[in-house]
Amino acid sequence: MKLTRCLLLAIPLLCMGGHAWAFRLRLNGLVTEYSTQQPMQAARVRIYKDGLLLAQQASNAAGKYAMMLENNAHYVLRVDAPGYQGKSIMVDTHGTEWQGDKRIAELLVEMRLPSLRTGIDLSYFDLPLGLARFEPATGFTRWNKTYERSLAMGAHALMEQYVRQEAEMPAAGAEAHRRVMPAIRL
Predict the structure, then answer these.
(1) Residue 12, pLDDT score
(2) What is the pLDDT of residues 107-144, one digit of tens each?
(3) What is the DSSP string of 83-151?
(4) Distance between CA atoms of 2 and 178, rounded to whole angstroms?
(5) What local confidence, expressed as pLDDT, does residue 186 receive?
(6) How far apart are CA 34 and CA 124, in angstroms?
(7) pLDDT, tens digit, 9 for 90 and up, residues 143-179
(8) Distance between CA atoms of 70 and 104, rounded to whole angstroms?
């Protein structure tokens, strides 16, 4: 009888132990120049938590950065550089969390920044280009495909115009054009 009672108490504890975990999310990023796809050193990377600036850093020589995100918060990641159009994504980390677990899930995000140009309004990219939902209990991240599809047509049309203009610009003129663009000051 005592053995049966002990087993009945142990089974729920074992089951809870198998599901009692929570991941944290590490955002690993890469910033590249849109046209050349070369890494961008010293791009400004800002992370906002629940609307407040949490951290700011610069991408390294390889265009990389990394940031840990806490669970149960809304984040906006903004990346920009002088002379380039910035981009952003949103990440929601709300969900079931179990105390004491230290596991980390990784999410790689590449931001390709187009250079600012006269005659093309790239401010469309001020909208978050992705909405991600991270589930701490499983460590999985899902992207909102409906939201991405709603932005896709506008983004593709704008970048087709951008690529056409780039193809029409002589190489020397394109470099001179980039030098006269004002720096982004926020």
Answers:
(1) 40
(2) 999 999 999 999 999 999 999 999 999 999 889 999 99
(3) TB--EEEEEE--S---TT---EEEEEEEEEEPBPBTTB--GGGGSEEEEEEEETTTTEEEE-HHHHHHH
(4) 80
(5) 29
(6) 15
(7) 999 999 999 999 999 999 999 988 887 654 445 444 3
(8) 11
* Domain boundaries, given as residue ranges, for the chain: 21-180
**pTM summary value:** 0.77
**21-180, CATH topology level:** Immunoglobulin-like (2.60.40)
Length, in residues, of the chain? 186
Q: What one-character DSSP code corresponds to residue 39? A: B
CA distance 20 to 42: 40
Gap between the Cα atoms of 96 and 3, Å rounded? 33
Give the Å distances, CA to CA, from 119 to 122, 155, 156, 177: 10, 16, 17, 12
